[in-house]
Amino acid sequence: MSDDRTEEQRKSYRPIDAVGFRESISRNWGPVDRSVVVPKGLAEAAGEHRRRLTEALPGRRIALGAGRAPVRSNDTDFGFRADSDFVWLTGCQAEGAVLVISGDGDSTLYLRETAGPDEVDFFANARDGELWIGPVPGLKDWSDALQIPCRPIEELPSAVRGAVPFMLATYGVEPMLDALVQTSPTDGNALRQTLAELRRIKDDWEIDQLREAVAASVLAFADVARELPEAVRGGGERWLQGTFDRRARTAGNGPGYASIVAAGNHAPVLHWVRNDGAVREGDVILLDAGVETRTLYTADVTRTFPVTGEFSPAQRQVHDLVHAAHVAALDAVRPGAPYRAFQYEAMRVLVDGLRDWGVLDVSLDEALGPDGQQHRRYVVCGLGHYIGLDVHDCDAARPETYFAADLEVGMAMAVEPGLYFHPNDETLPPELRGIGVRIEDNVVVHADRTEILTADLPITTDGLEQWVRTQLR
Known about the structure:
Blueprint: H1 7-10, H2 19-25, H3 42-56, E1 61-65, E2 71-73, E3 76-77, H4 84-90, E4 98-101, E5 107-111, H5 120-124, H6 130-133, H7 139-146, E6 150-152, H8 156-159, E7 167-169, H9 175-180, H10 185-199, H11 204-226, H12 228-251, E8 254-255, E9 260-263, E10 284-289, E11 291-292, E12 301-306, H13 313-331, H14 341-356, H15 364-368, E13 384-386, H16 399-402, E14 412-415, E15 418-421, E16 435-438, E17 441-445, E18 450-452, H17 461-472
Parallel strand pairs: 1-7, 5-6
Antiparallel strand pairs: 1-4, 2-3, 4-5, 8-11, 9-10, 10-12, 13-14, 14-17, 15-16, 17-18
């Protein structure tokens, strides 16, 4: 194939090298709204969280990074999601930002300042330049919104100078911070541990964020139920996942974790996140999904419901047993109760039921004892956890403050008993194989009651059948 272009036409020109372009691009730009809109109470809540941290670690200099978006492939990145501890302390979701807390408790946020039209980054930086990605809040915008002093990120080295070994810092989140502060793994883990243990107790503002996340999730579950006919017609699990994700994206930041949309034989698979299977009449759908708010607090909800609005006898049998275990677990959630109590009560009910069905041939005491645990073949996962900024919140806490502690006012948890009968499990009668059921509620411990945030979604077999039929009308 001949090339009829002239030599001049074959030359490649880069606008960045052209004087005319650089002069043109730097002129005649009007004002841009870069303001940061944050929910009422966020700045005050973050300030109180910083106070609690400095009280727990008096006199320590502390630094945490927001992090950066990981590379997806070549020159494309995954969406950015700020580090949860950083967000808890700042309310900020700016990529590459770093919080520094001095020994006397004063806090400063270090961020990248917005490049104006007279700067090369404005038009030449495809990843961060405003010409490419739109308006970016500047230092004053963040400071006004979050009520915290903000300084250019270029000043971070001087802010942490002399920090070794006097600074606690998170490691592996922000490369610049890692290079500047040689925090030992022990010190870094100690900071994470302290933050996790502080975050176990939610304040009123945080509980409101969880209520918002759950309310949006309840709407998304109804959206999914209304789309069951389309899923049966060929859309499958992918269609239902997309339905949930659309609501999550419009009502909040997006899904709080990888949604599980498990139909039929996929329901016993604990982390079925492929969501690429068919949906058939007669199936039950195990939907485990949660909306993450724009402040990054996430719900974690599961319901198992019939595609046609009617459980089969075997599906109903399994669901009724899980429901009985769920009610027993909720009854054990109260201030002062051991954290493990609600899980023990649920396991006790499940073991009794499996023994009644002939699936287990050991005593209750043996099954629940340290050398037994035969029932865990069908209940492999735990039955609850903390929720908050992370779907499995506070995981860095010490075992004695997570598993061995007593429940306290302000704790927010997911309670989620289930039974998982794999289709190829020959220890089970044929009619039970391929059935998976989980019920997961989000609860908050109050002094006088347990608040079930997810109460608007039914948990009984009759209630779920009616709920599905209502959505399908």
